[in-house]
Amino acid sequence: MSDDHTRKIKDKRRLMLTQLLRAPVLNPAGTEVGRLQDIVVKLADGAYPPLGGLKVRVGAQDVFIAKDLIERLEPGGVRLNTHTIRTEAFQRRPGEVLLAADVLGRHLVDVVKGRIVQAHDLVLSPGDTGWYLAGIDRSPQAMLRRLVPRRRRPDLRRHAILDWKDVQPFMGHVPTAKLLMPLQRLRRLHPAQIADIVEGASHEEGQEIIEAVESDPALTADIFEELDPEHQIEFIKSKSNEDAAQILERMAPDDAADLLSELDQERRKPVFDMMSANQQHKLRKLLQYHPTTAGGMMSPDYVWVIRGATVDMALEAVRIDDKAPHALLGVVFITEDEGRFIGSISVPDLMRTNLDRLVEDLDLTTVSVAGNADITDVTLMMADYNLSALAVTDAAYNLIGAISSDDVIEALVPEDWRARVEASSGV
To answer: For domain 304-412, which architecture applies?
Structure first.
């Protein structure tokens, strides 16, 4: 028998959770002993959760029926292999999750596409050792199946079925689950995707993600850089001053300056004082300017060499730099010894030039903007000269920072474009 044929047979046998909820539970004689209230599983990283048993309403009490007592599951009913069941009141055990109460209708993270999805129904499949949770159905039709009476529910079709291994549930609301959002799964996503998920989640769900990544300070800082100001403040509030300072320390200086300026007045100085002298120096320079000016958007970290440097030395400066944002690594700035701006040149142009030539002898871009230039001036300058990075200078024409095209795009994106649809809607 081919694998495809086997798969088709298994697909026909799969069940949706909504086909079983409130269904009669029958003994071998066909007599109803109760009604199914929920299905118990134990979640495990990287595995399909096996069905551990049933929560069944018997009379006025909920009881647990172990999986070994189940003869078969089928749409609209459960058949047991015994006439005798234990009638002690149902109690969760550590690590147990109830599919209807804890997962159905709730948000999950699609760790493949980096978005929030909603489990409108859950897919159960048979295996060699019993039934297991195989996936979720996030389609509107699945929601309809949950809301309408059983006899009038629409037919099951292949809608938006997601494999369970491709999703991660939020478990902060389940005290017995003992499973946090796993950091290793979040690391597969770009920080911007994680930030989108946090912004599209509830506060509790977002907090679960923030707590999951806090053991990776660099990733935490990257995510905070991508969050909108409202969510930055929302989650920085729960941090101690020391933790907040550590996050700001690792953020790009321009993003850190913006977030620091948003902190309550009574927190701003204590947090600032806990940062390194180097970061404090950078932030002081940036905080002199309004966030929408060139000085407020610039990064004080960039690749530069002084007059007299060779092309080879300029390329080496790019290679060893560990501070400049990625978007600024494509340009090298040249200054006099005392810091006066001479010009800039792209790394591709340097790579096409003889290594022993002096950088000041090359065809440099010599335009710059003042720190108080507004976004319009910056945008027009970069567009007119086709620049990926633009120098920012002070009144004495000393180089004080650089603006990348990324900074300009971020400043120009309308606020209502920032919430990516797939991250927040799950469609």
So the answer is: Roll (3.10)
**CB 227 within 8 Å of CB 198:** yes
Question: What are the average pLDDT values for consecutive 10-residue runs of the chain, which has 427 residues?
Answer: 43 83 95 96 83 94 95 94 90 89 94 92 93 91 57 52 92 68 89 94 93 93 94 94 96 93 93 96 93 93 97 97 91 97 97 96 97 95 95 96 92 69 46
* CA 258 to the chain's CA centroid: 21
Distance between CA 402 and CA 269 in Å, rounded? 26
Q: Which amino acid is at 100?
A: A
Q: Within a 10 A sphere around the Cβ of 406, how many other Cβ atoms?
A: 15
Please give the order of strands across the beta sheet that includes 130-137.
Answer: 15-16, 121-127, 130-137, 161-163
CA distances from 43 to 9, 177, 283 (A): 26, 8, 45
Positive or negative CA dihedral for 347, 352, 353, 355? Answer: positive
Q: Please say whether the beta carbons of 403 and 389 come within 8 A.
A: yes
The count of C-alpha atoms lying within 13 angstroms of the C-alpha of 363, restricted to the half-sphere facing its C-beta, is 4
Q: What are the sequence ranges of the domains in the chain?
A: 3-169, 201-287, 304-412
Query: What is the distance between the alpha carbons of residues 420 and 416, in angstroms, rounded to a whole number?
Result: 9
Pick the CATH number of 201-287 from 3.30.365.10, 3.30.450.20, 3.30.40.10, 1.25.60.10: 1.25.60.10
Q: How far apart are the first and last CA of the chain?
A: 37
Query: For the CA atoms of the chain, what is the radius of gyration?
Result: 29
CB 52, CB 107: distance < 8 Å: no
Would the pTM of this model clear 0.85, i.e. be above it?
Answer: no
- Reported as a single tens digit per residue, the pLDDT across 397-406 is 999 999 999 9
